[in-house]
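Worked example 2:
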Amino acid sequence: MNINMTLIGQSITFFIFVWFCMKFVWPPIVSALETRRKQIADGLAAADRGRHELELAARRASENLHEAKQKAAEIIAQAEKRAIQLVEEAKGAAKEEGDRLIVAAQAEIEQESHRAREALRAEVAALVVAGAGRVLRREVNPQAHADLLEAIKNEL
Protein backbone atom coordinates (compact mmCIF):
# COMPACT_ATOMS: atom_id res chain seq x y z
CA MET A 1 0.00 0.00 0.00
CA ASN A 2 1.12 3.28 -0.93
CA ILE A 3 0.85 6.25 1.43
CA ASN A 4 -0.11 8.57 -1.35
CA MET A 5 -3.01 6.42 -2.37
CA THR A 6 -4.14 6.19 1.22
CA LEU A 7 -4.02 9.96 1.60
CA ILE A 8 -5.90 10.46 -1.66
CA GLY A 9 -8.51 7.84 -0.62
CA GLN A 10 -8.88 9.41 2.78
CA SER A 11 -9.10 12.86 1.21
CA ILE A 12 -11.84 11.71 -1.17
CA THR A 13 -13.66 9.98 1.67
CA PHE A 14 -13.31 13.14 3.79
CA PHE A 15 -14.68 15.31 0.96
CA ILE A 16 -17.58 12.90 0.43
CA PHE A 17 -18.27 12.98 4.17
CA VAL A 18 -18.14 16.81 4.19
CA TRP A 19 -20.38 16.94 1.13
CA PHE A 20 -22.83 14.48 2.76
CA CYS A 21 -22.85 16.49 6.00
CA MET A 22 -23.31 19.77 4.11
CA LYS A 23 -26.08 18.29 1.99
CA PHE A 24 -28.05 16.21 4.52
CA VAL A 25 -26.91 16.89 8.12
CA TRP A 26 -26.04 20.57 8.21
CA PRO A 27 -29.37 22.09 6.88
CA PRO A 28 -31.59 20.47 9.56
CA ILE A 29 -29.13 21.54 12.27
CA VAL A 30 -29.02 25.09 10.92
CA SER A 31 -32.80 25.26 10.60
CA ALA A 32 -33.21 23.89 14.16
CA LEU A 33 -30.72 26.47 15.42
CA GLU A 34 -32.50 29.25 13.49
CA THR A 35 -35.87 28.14 14.84
CA ARG A 36 -34.49 28.08 18.38
CA ARG A 37 -32.91 31.52 17.88
CA LYS A 38 -36.26 32.91 16.70
CA GLN A 39 -38.06 31.35 19.68
CA ILE A 40 -35.54 32.84 22.09
CA ALA A 41 -35.76 36.25 20.41
CA ASP A 42 -39.58 36.12 20.49
CA GLY A 43 -39.50 35.09 24.15
CA LEU A 44 -37.17 37.97 25.03
CA ALA A 45 -39.34 40.42 23.09
CA ALA A 46 -42.45 39.10 24.85
CA ALA A 47 -40.67 39.44 28.19
CA ASP A 48 -39.75 43.04 27.35
CA ARG A 49 -43.34 43.77 26.29
CA GLY A 50 -44.63 42.14 29.47
CA ARG A 51 -42.24 44.18 31.60
CA HIS A 52 -43.28 47.34 29.78
CA GLU A 53 -46.99 46.49 30.20
CA LEU A 54 -46.38 45.74 33.88
CA GLU A 55 -44.77 49.16 34.32
CA LEU A 56 -47.71 50.79 32.52
CA ALA A 57 -50.20 48.86 34.66
CA ALA A 58 -48.33 49.90 37.80
CA ARG A 59 -48.42 53.54 36.67
CA ARG A 60 -52.13 53.28 35.83
CA ALA A 61 -52.84 51.67 39.20
CA SER A 62 -50.88 54.41 40.94
CA GLU A 63 -52.78 57.09 39.00
CA ASN A 64 -56.11 55.41 39.74
CA LEU A 65 -55.20 55.21 43.42
CA HIS A 66 -54.22 58.88 43.41
CA GLU A 67 -57.50 59.83 41.67
CA ALA A 68 -59.48 57.70 44.12
CA LYS A 69 -57.77 59.42 47.05
CA GLN A 70 -58.55 62.83 45.54
CA LYS A 71 -62.19 61.87 44.96
CA ALA A 72 -62.42 60.53 48.50
CA ALA A 73 -60.97 63.78 49.84
CA GLU A 74 -63.46 65.77 47.76
CA ILE A 75 -66.35 63.62 48.96
CA ILE A 76 -65.22 64.03 52.57
CA ALA A 77 -64.90 67.80 52.10
CA GLN A 78 -68.38 67.95 50.55
CA ALA A 79 -69.79 65.84 53.39
CA GLU A 80 -68.21 68.12 55.98
CA LYS A 81 -69.52 71.17 54.15
CA ARG A 82 -73.00 69.62 53.98
CA ALA A 83 -72.84 68.73 57.69
CA ILE A 84 -71.94 72.32 58.56
CA GLN A 85 -74.75 73.53 56.32
CA LEU A 86 -77.22 71.15 57.98
CA VAL A 87 -76.10 72.32 61.43
CA GLU A 88 -76.56 75.94 60.37
CA GLU A 89 -80.00 75.14 58.93
CA ALA A 90 -80.95 73.35 62.15
CA LYS A 91 -79.74 76.32 64.19
CA GLY A 92 -81.79 78.66 62.01
CA ALA A 93 -84.87 76.45 62.28
CA ALA A 94 -84.43 76.20 66.06
CA LYS A 95 -84.02 79.97 66.30
CA GLU A 96 -87.17 80.50 64.22
CA GLU A 97 -89.07 77.97 66.34
CA GLY A 98 -87.81 79.66 69.52
CA ASP A 99 -88.85 83.06 68.22
CA ARG A 100 -92.25 81.68 67.26
CA LEU A 101 -92.67 80.15 70.71
CA ILE A 102 -91.63 83.42 72.36
CA VAL A 103 -94.14 85.36 70.27
CA ALA A 104 -96.86 82.80 71.08
CA ALA A 105 -95.99 82.92 74.78
CA GLN A 106 -96.04 86.72 74.74
CA ALA A 107 -99.42 86.68 73.01
CA GLU A 108 -100.73 84.19 75.57
CA ILE A 109 -99.32 86.32 78.41
CA GLU A 110 -100.99 89.37 76.88
CA GLN A 111 -104.31 87.52 76.64
CA GLU A 112 -104.04 86.27 80.24
CA SER A 113 -103.15 89.77 81.36
CA HIS A 114 -106.16 91.17 79.50
CA ARG A 115 -108.45 88.51 81.05
CA ALA A 116 -107.04 89.26 84.50
CA ARG A 117 -107.66 92.99 83.97
CA GLU A 118 -111.20 92.31 82.84
CA ALA A 119 -111.82 90.06 85.84
CA LEU A 120 -110.31 92.67 88.13
CA ARG A 121 -112.46 95.38 86.57
CA ALA A 122 -115.55 93.26 87.09
CA GLU A 123 -114.61 92.68 90.73
CA VAL A 124 -113.80 96.37 91.26
CA ALA A 125 -117.13 97.30 89.67
CA ALA A 126 -118.92 94.88 92.00
CA LEU A 127 -117.02 96.32 94.95
CA VAL A 128 -117.83 99.86 93.84
CA VAL A 129 -121.52 98.99 93.55
CA ALA A 130 -121.44 97.34 96.96
CA GLY A 131 -119.53 100.29 98.42
CA ALA A 132 -121.88 102.78 96.85
CA GLY A 133 -124.83 100.78 98.17
CA ARG A 134 -123.46 100.99 101.66
CA VAL A 135 -122.65 104.65 101.32
CA LEU A 136 -126.08 105.43 100.06
CA ARG A 137 -127.66 102.92 102.41
CA ARG A 138 -129.66 101.59 99.66
CA GLU A 139 -129.01 99.01 97.05
CA VAL A 140 -127.84 100.12 93.64
CA ASN A 141 -129.42 98.04 90.89
CA PRO A 142 -126.65 96.75 88.55
CA GLN A 143 -129.10 96.20 85.65
CA ALA A 144 -130.50 99.69 85.94
CA HIS A 145 -127.11 101.33 86.01
CA ALA A 146 -125.28 99.08 83.53
CA ASP A 147 -124.16 102.03 81.40
CA LEU A 148 -122.74 103.79 84.40
CA LEU A 149 -120.97 100.65 85.60
CA GLU A 150 -119.50 100.06 82.11
CA ALA A 151 -118.12 103.61 82.08
CA ILE A 152 -116.54 103.04 85.49
CA LYS A 153 -114.99 99.78 84.26
CA ASN A 154 -113.47 101.53 81.26
CA GLU A 155 -112.00 104.28 83.45
CA LEU A 156 -110.26 101.75 85.62
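The chain has one domain: 24-155. The chain has two helices and no strands.
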